[in-house]
Automatic annotation (TrEMBL):
Origin species: uncultured Desulfovibrio sp
A biological process term (GO) from this entry: negative regulation of DNA-templated transcription
GO terms for MF: DNA binding
Domain Bacteriophage CI repressor N-terminal: 17-78
Name under which the protein is recorded: Bacteriophage CI repressor N-terminal domain-containing protein
InterPro entries: Lambda_DNA-bd_dom_sf (IPR010982), Phage_CI_N (IPR010744)
Gene3D superfamilies associated with the record: lambda repressor-like DNA-binding domains
Length: 123
């Protein structure tokens, strides 16, 4: 079983977070969303019960559709960080060497960097 890093939702109703995901992706049911994310349908129910969305889902939504993880978690800011067709294969990360590939970085590190940048640009 995969250990997922989750970010607690700032609202008591985890369904609000998933409702924002449904607004942004071409899915209407948990089965469709699970297929879209490449996960089991029961994982969506589990996330609702835990009140947290796994970081891997947020990263997939960002990379696949350009969906802003901060917007998913809070409803604040822009829904899109950039159009999905313009999501680059390389993402610049805060490193001394400049631009890095995604390889070698954990999902948690990547998501923290994305959230840091999103919060910095919205400040």
């Amino acid at each position: 079983m995969t250990n997922h890093t989750s970010f607690p939702l700032p609202e008591p109703d985890a369904g609000a977070c998933l409702a924002r995901v449904y607004e942004a992706v071409p899915c209407r049911t948990q089965v469709e969303l699970a297929e879209f994310l490449g996960i089991r349908q029961s994982s969506i129910s589990d996330a609702k019960k835990r009140g947290a969305v796994p970081a891997e889902w947020l990263l997939k939504l960002l990379l696949m559709k350009g969906i802003n993880p901060v917007w998913v978690l809070t409803g604040q800011g822009s829904r899109w960080l950039q159009p999905a067709e313009q999501v680059p294969i390389l993402l610049p990360l805060a490193t001394s060497g400049g631009v890095c590939t995604l390889e070698g970085f954990s999902t948690e590190v990547l998501l923290k960097e994305l959230l840091r940048r999103a919060l910095h640009t919205n400040a």
